[in-house]
Amino acid sequence: MSMMKTNMLVRSLSTSSTAAQLVKPPVQVFGLEGRYASALYSAGTKSKSLDAVEKELTQFQKSIQTDAKLKEFLINPTLKRNLKVDALKHLASKTSLSATTGNLLGLMAENGRLGKLEAVINAFKIMMAAHRGEVTCEVITAKPLDQAQKQNLEAALKKFLKGNETLQLTATVDPSLIGGMVVSIGDKYVDMSVASKVKKYTELISAAV
């Protein structure tokens, strides 16, 4: 969907009188969740509340995952939108959520998009990781890596990072993998030049394991 729609979301989420100019996130996430997350990132940047918003949404996501009633309330299509808007306004006030987070919940309720809330939160987390210079890398191997192999891999991958970036490495095991390893840096979200460098490097690492 178009930049115009994203700018409309930015205006809706803005808590200040600043012109509805989109502050672009450090990485682009596509789809509806990307548009909401981009608007949220822009609003949070302007109100200097990015860290607070991330913390609040991470906590809210945990609540969704552990509270079946809350989840049902959010995704139930038969409940009227205005009922959800009022309930979430009350929740935001009761739990002292920042205005930016409260605006996001209210806007998604108004637009009937609460079923996508977790996807929006995940997209926002990706943007915040990039904002902090974190590069998330997933390594899948047929056998668990020992500590020395993991350290060697981290050291090798760090060579591809820019000065202000840090590596967030997760290693998983997939016994069905025949030899070598798969290294991925979320192609959907990360600068393709970084992803292609890592793919070339994967072959070298695979030969060494």
Describe the structure.
The protein has 209 residues and is mainly α. The protein folds into two domains: 32-130, Orthogonal Bundle (Peroxidase, domain 1); 134-208. It has helices at residues 3-13, 31-46, 50-66, 68-75, 81-94, 99-110, 117-131, 147-158, 192-208, and strands spanning 134-141, 166-173, 181-184. The chain has a three-stranded mixed beta sheet with strand order 2-1-3. Helix 8 links the parallel strand 1 (134-141) and strand 2 (166-173). It is globular. The chain starts with a helix and ends with a helix. Mean pLDDT is 81; it is low at 186-195. It is found in: Membrane. This is Oligomycin sensitivity conferral protein. Keywords: ATP synthesis, Hydrogen ion transport, Ion transport, Membrane, Transport. Belongs to the ATPase delta chain family.
Q: How many angstroms does the end-to-end distance come to? A: 44 Å
Helix content: 55-70%
- Mean pLDDT, to the nearest integer, reads 81
- Helix-strand topology string: HHHHHHHEHEEH
CATH top level label of the largest domain: Mainly Alpha
**Structure classification:** mainly alpha
Question: Approximately how much beta-strand content do the residues carry?
Answer: 5-15%
CATH superfamily of the largest domain: N-terminal domain of the delta subunit of the F1F0-ATP synthase
- Count of individual beta strands: 3
Q: Please state the second-level CATH architecture of the largest domain.
A: Orthogonal Bundle
Count the helices. How many?
A: 9
Going across the biggest sheet, name each strand in turn.
2-1-3
Structural domain count = 2
Low-confidence stretches: 186-195
At CATH level 3, the topology of the largest domain is Peroxidase, domain 1
GO molecular function: proton-transporting ATP synthase activity, rotational mechanism
Subcellular location: Membrane
Keywords: ATP synthesis, Hydrogen ion transport, Ion transport, Membrane, Transport
Protein name: Oligomycin sensitivity conferral protein
